[in-house]
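ugh ok fine here u go
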Amino acid sequence: MPQVYKNYINGQWVDAQSGQTFEDINPANTEEVLGLFPRSTEKDVASAVEAARASFDSWRKVPAPKRAEIMFRAAEKLVQRKEELAQLMTREMGKVLKEARGDVQEAIDMTYYIAGEGRRMFGETTPSELPNKFAMSIRMPVGVVAAITPWNFPLAIPSWKLVPALVCGNTVVFKPAEDTPLMATRFVEILIEAGLPKGVLNLVHGFGEEAGAALVTHPGVDLVSFTGSSEVGREVALKCAESYKRVSLEMGGKNAIIVMDDANLDLAVEGAIWGAFGTTGQRCTAASRLIVHKKVLQEFTDRFVAQVKKLKLGNGLDPNTDVGPVINEQQLKRIHRYTQIAREEGIQILTGGEIYKEGECAKGYFYLPTVFAEVKPQSRIAQEEIFGPCPAIIPAESLEEAIDIVNNSKYGLSSAIYTQDINKAFVAIRDIYTGITYVNSSTIGAEVHLPFGGTKQTGNGHREGGHVLDVFTEWKTVYIDYSGKLQKAQIDV
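structure:
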């Protein structure tokens, strides 16, 4: 019998009020059930929001450095449990073990970094235009934060949201993806062990259309921080607008690598493999478009496909595995549907293009690493986010055409260019309209102390990582007049 897990509300581990549960399944072996989790409804969400609201006033008054000390202790615990968490992550969502270790390390890095911000939540002091008057700005917490996170980075992305929200003095209701509830539970356990008071952090498991939707629309929530698809993000934004909630959205991507005719092709192929097939292509920053100069198109394609054919598909716990399963059956069917669309559009499939059910992969959700070639920039597989191991190779005549192809997307998260010409690199940096650009590196590999986020339908202007305090705080401007008389700004000049 699988272990039964619970929600965490107001300092207590509790069942869903409905008594319903759902299974947490290993995508590499669907016969392994990792646990049963509460299928929460709006009643559970209401209890969690009530607890967070009741705890907010006392938590915001705890000095920020003291709040940050709790996060530092949590980071120490993450370090101690890194391998255990990585192994569990691979079992729960499928990414290969070395990537799971990287996911945990990112959470460690983020938690340490934000712990330091507890002493650096700086405002500004500035001269007043009037005599005997002092002017400054300070940060305030927003209130109750709803943190809604995806399954592809089940520890890193929650750390991007929970840790800064808490250090800034907010209280949190955390709704993780239903595909990775166990990693969320482990993270909450660590934060509790580190010393969080009851009610400050609440965990509600369940499905997006039930628990997630109820959380977004609850009047007691002040800010929604959401990472997921652009389609769902749009609905979140509309619902938040109705009640004037603040909202931070991190959504889809259709990221591109430009390979110029002067590129180091060995390096470019290596970067394209990593960008396209890391996490089985299930990253918002995955390199799903490879825009290659026609002078090196054939050579790059041949080298790339030869390397793709060598990738080993299998369970991520096997150290020889290069590409793990996709997350669930729905996503497996979605990926294959896009392969069928490519065939209907007459696009070449140089390798892969099939669901794989052989040998050790027979019991999981595996898709063969796939390469689409000679793809037109306007084709559906070049425009729509597939979220799978299937990059599209798109030819280009020049740097200018390549940049136009990159920008011809409704998304704008990550981009990369491989070139040995510094002038071309700086033109790309200037003209590519994405939130992140790499030179001679892949589209994945963001560092926690720099802003993370994108343009257009990738986000709504906010940044996580290095600029995340601006999401989880409000600015207050303070004027102190010690003149002893009424002074009128812009009038008494």
